[in-house]
Amino acid sequence: MRKELVFWVEEYFYNPNSMQKLISLLISPLSYLYCFVMYLRYKTKKAQDFGIDIISIGNLSVGGSGKTPLVSALASKYANCAIILRGYGRQSQGLYVVSDGEKILTDVSISGDEAMIYAKKVPNAIVIVSEDRKKGIQKAKEMGAKIIFLDDAYSKHDIKKLDFLIEVESENKFCLPSGAFRERLWKGKEAVVLKEGIDFKRVVELKNKSDKMSLITAIARPNRLNSYLPEVLSKNYFEDHHSFTKEEIASILKRDASDSALVTYKDFVKLEQFDLPLSLLDLDVEVSENIFKTIDNYRGKNSAKKD
């Protein structure tokens, strides 16, 4: 039941049918109220300077937008960096150091899937999960970080940072609950909007390919994968951040008589413990040099202010 509800909401937000459009319109007064409250929240916040370069990569809407591969690509270019995120979907609370930049210190149940991706993809980075980003920033500074990347922190208006926003196309332009947008790009709020295909582009590599594969994935809006998929026996979608069991995967492989399960990296970090045959659809991004120039200019200005 939960899975069906999640997929209905994703359709409602991003590709609504006629009935969903009507529902969205009927509750639109709630969206205007929500958006106004979020604007007041923005206006009442004062950005705190933590004395360290902080870069946020996010988007204005709920659901997936490619933040994780973009953060990985950016952070991998900088020494003494830290990645901080909330750790949505993890079976823990509070602050945990997932990686100290030399070794991984937790398992995926503690870290959550996205933090474990960072720990594996950017092994030289400190990776911290914390609902309180400010505590995470202080911890990263204590551990020697010189630059911090925040995953999905546009709404943290009380933190001084450089904001990148990934543009997400949607037929539904309303704020919650009529639409997918959590906030707007508020007037007076500086942010750099990034467009896929211009500022970054996807690079897909299929690893450990087999002749017969079943796609199994738990990412938001899984239809985003369609343009990158090889031929598969079946497509098996679970809700975002789903905690798989070995029996779930084994039953799909048996049903399809598959040689392997085709998964994204977000799924791989949760499934590798099961010792089942996996093929990996590894999605990375190539980033425009202009983004790195923007980061370096921001860091240069911060350094000049300190001097």
Features:
307 residues; alpha/beta; Rossmann fold; 2 domains; 7-stranded mixed beta sheet; 5-stranded mixed beta sheet; 10 helices; globular
Structural class of the secondary structure composition? Answer: alpha/beta
How many helices? The count is 10
Report the principal-axis shape.
globular
Strand count: 12
Strand content: 15-25%
**Radius of gyration over C-alpha positions, nearest whole angstrom:** 20 Å
Compute the number of structural domains.
2
Helical coverage, percent range:
25-40%
Largest sheet: 7 strands, mixed
Separation, N- and C-terminal Cα atoms: 58 Å
What's the rounded overall pLDDT mean?
94
Runs in which pLDDT lies below 50 for 5 or more consecutive residues are: none
Supply the CATH architecture of the largest domain.
3-Layer(aba) Sandwich
Widest beta sheet: strand line-up: 3-4-2-5-1-6-7
Q: What series of H and E elements makes up the topology?
A: HHHEHEEHHEHEEEEEEHEHEH
- CATH topology of the largest domain: the name is Rossmann fold
| CATH C-level class of the largest domain | Alpha Beta
